[in-house]
Amino acid sequence: MDNPAELLALAVSVARSASDLANRMRAEGVDAVATKSTATDVVTAADRAVEQLVRDELHKSRPGDAVLGEEYGGGQDQTAVRWILDPIDGTVNYLYDLPQYAVSLAAEVDGVVVAGVVRNAATGREWTATRGGGAFCGPRRLRASTETDLGQALVGTGFGYAAERRRHQARVLGGLIGHIRDIRRLGAASIDLCLVAEGTLDAYYEKGLNPWDHAAGGLVAAEAGALVTGLDGNPPGLDMVVAAPPSLHQPLHDLLSKLDAAGGP
Ligand code: LIP
Q1: What is the 3-state secondary structure (H, E, C) of 200-225?
Q2: How many CB atoms sit inside 10 A of residue 34's CB?
Q3: Nearest C-alpha neighbor of 23 from the set 60, 2, 49
Q4: CA 91, 6, 78, 231 torsion: positive or negative?
Q5: Using a CB cutoff of 8 Å and minimum separation of 24, what contacts does 44-50 make?
Q6: 126 ligand 1 Cβ < 6 A
Q7: Which residue in 252, 243, 98 sits closest to 173, CA to CA?
Q8: What per-residue confidence (pLDDT) applies to 78?
Q9: Residues 100, 90: contact at Cβ < 8 Å?
Q10: Rounded Cα gap, residues 95 and 116, in angstroms
């Protein structure tokens, strides 16, 4: 019953329904209905409605599972399977109708993510992975970048919502930018991680990601051969997520550590 392939099939089906709802609501017009950590950390009615739809769909199929979602929290129940959900990752992009936002849904069994789907609701592009089963974009199997020179690497990143953290992140970027090809700030961590999986980005890093931002995309990137870690021996988490192929991971990691990228407010 906790077979990763079966969990993935359910996740894909639910993510597609969720994406359809997000698109319907986007077409009707979107306004921020609330803010969270700062005045720019917005929540839309679609974030809430999409999360509720996913919760309802998962409950129909697997009523005993726990669900941790960005908008309604939860996931504390001691169950074998826990779902980790960002109903609309890239909410600011969604608010502005920039086509870079995703439903991100991962299944965790006994604390280990074993299946995940990231679906760009705007474009229909869909990335999936099961632990040990590989990463895919549609039917295409994914391999991360083969770039070996950090100076030639196109690196994705993102910034938090709080001004003090953004200033620290800008200082880190200032120390990094002269050592890489260029930066891309696309606005949805789950998609950034999937772009690393397919080699569209050579690497990605960001401080401040919640589990729902990187649970599914992190598995996709790892199953495509990328190393997905924190800094200085830590696992990926709030302090830092770094995703890069082995050839780039060490030089990027060491530079980020030297720049105190996981530190600051
Ligand atoms: C977003 C992340 C993005 C980060 C944004 C925000 P949200 O998640 O996907 O990488 O830079 O600040 O956290 O809030 O749209 O779910």
Answers
A1: CCCEEEECCCCHHHHHHHHHHHHHCC
A2: 12
A3: 49
A4: negative
A5: 44/88, 44/91, 44/94, 44/95, 46/21, 46/22, 46/87, 46/88, 46/94, 47/71, 47/87, 47/88, 47/91, 48/72, 48/87, 49/21, 49/25, 50/18, 50/21, 50/22, 50/25, 50/87, 50/88, 50/103
A6: no
A7: 252
A8: 87
A9: yes
A10: 25
Q: Ligand 1 in contact with 147 (CB < 6 A)?
A: no
Answer whether 243 contacts ligand 1 (Cβ < 6 A).
no
154 close to 202: Cβ distance less than 8 angstroms = yes
User: Tell me, what's the pLDDT at 1?
Assistant: 63
Ordered structural domains, the chain, with CATH: 4-141 (3.30.540.10), 150-258 (3.40.190.80)
Contact 86, 103 (CB under 8 A): yes
- Is the pTM for the entire model greater than 0.85? yes
pLDDT tens by residue, 238-261:
999 999 999 999 999 999 999 999
The preferred substitution site among 213, 214, 240, 242 for testing ligand 1, maximizing ligand atoms within 8 Å of CB, is 213
Q: Which residue has the tokens 């050579």?
A: 202
Q: What three-state secondary structure class fits 146?
A: coil
Copy the structure tokens of residue 245.
């192929």
What's residue 105's pLDDT? 98
Q: φ, ψ for residue 250 (rounded to 5)?
A: -65, -50
Question: Average pLDDT for consecutive 10-residue bins of the chain (265 residues)?
Answer: 93 98 96 88 95 98 97 91 98 97 98 98 98 98 98 98 97 98 98 99 98 98 99 98 98 98 96
Amino acid at 175: G
Neighbours of 22 (CB within 10 A): 26
Of 137, 239, 251, 245, nearest in space to 196 by CA: 245
Looking at residue 2, its pLDDT comes to 84
